[in-house]
């Protein structure tokens, strides 16, 4: 068993983009990387076999809030952890549930002890404390587990963002105390990542980065972005945080975002991304392709028998036609959701893989500018 390590292999000369390798007990992750979101232990509509064969996923996510409510830690522990339960033998990252609690604004109550909230399933009341969240994530068994933080809403004023950041830091201390006091359950090393907060205020973000960096964790995350602030503000704060987080540790930007968001933030120095967008938008007939964005519902695709995306090295994207996929959506056939989800996820993994190639060859900045314009094209 070994603590997660990060080898920084290449840096782009005209941006802050970087390529590296994260090593965990469940295998290596080449960065920059996109991580498909498997909220309840599965990526919606996509089997683990397809995640490996078509999507080429290197790491997936699970969510503490959802897995705690269902199936529960008793089931997960008896199964031997999430890796055994869902038969995924590569790395897993578990979110702390902080964002899900944030999204339950109508039923949650935040206090020093933790957060009380009502289950979205049956309305039952629960309390998440930093200690409990660490224990739940120990039971789930992710290779990377996230600290319990408070995610302030977009547009929060300075006073709220400051108070929230300080609470997140106090909770982080409690997370590390509990994490260090409890052993790994399943014979491999788990790694705790802290989360930078501070809203859109640079002095708070700098203070939070410095506090998080002082913990010397194996990696660090940036939270509280893509929660309603304008894109230029997101990029500005992301850039600022990257300037104040350790160079030798992987940086994870939580919950971001569109393909162009990801390319811009790679250029700022981010290594890890996750977002529900590829599967959520796919289920709603929006496809991200190597040539731009497609709404496959549109009538213009009715007689288009060309592959969904001939340039994408994904079997489903080359096997099925645009016309056929449109037909499946119109017929409300469940297969449409799987094809669209696999396609979009494959595209995201292809995109970060291409980004890595261009970082290594040294022309990332110019390639990124051309690619962002292409990706925003509505076909």
From TrEMBL:
EC number(s) recorded for this UniProt protein: 2.4.2.29
Region annotated RNA binding, chain positions: 255-261, 279-283
Sample GO molecular function, one term: glycosyltransferase activity
Protein residues bound to substrate: 95-99, 149, 197, 224
Sorted UniProt keywords: Glycosyltransferase, Queuosine biosynthesis, Transferase, tRNA processing
Keyword Transferase: yes
Catalytic residue positions: 95 (proton acceptor), 274 (nucleophile)
Keyword Transferase: yes
Enzyme class, spelled out: transferase
Recorded metabolic or biological pathway in which this protein acts: tRNA modification; tRNA-queuosine biosynthesis
The tRNA-guanine(15) transglycosylase-like domain, residue ranges: 15-374
Known role: Catalyzes the base-exchange of a guanine (G) residue with the queuine precursor 7-aminomethyl-7-deazaguanine (PreQ1) at position 34 (anticodon wobble position) in tRNAs with GU(N) anticodons (tRNA-Asp, -Asn, -His and -Tyr). Catalysis occurs through a double-displacement mechanism. The nucleophile active site attacks the C1' of nucleotide 34 to detach the guanine base from the RNA, forming a covalent enzyme-RNA intermediate. The proton acceptor active site deprotonates the incoming PreQ1, allowing a nucleophilic attack on the C1' of the ribose to form the product.
Classification via HAMAP family: Q_tRNA_Tgt
Assembly and binders: Homodimer. Within each dimer, one monomer is responsible for RNA recognition and catalysis, while the other monomer binds to the replacement base PreQ1.
Family to which the UniProt record says this protein belongs: Belongs to the queuine tRNA-ribosyltransferase family.
Name of the protein in its database record: Queuine tRNA-ribosyltransferase
Organism for this UniProt entry: Niabella ginsengisoli
Lineage, uppermost ranks: Bacteria, Pseudomonadati, Bacteroidota, Chitinophagia, Chitinophagales
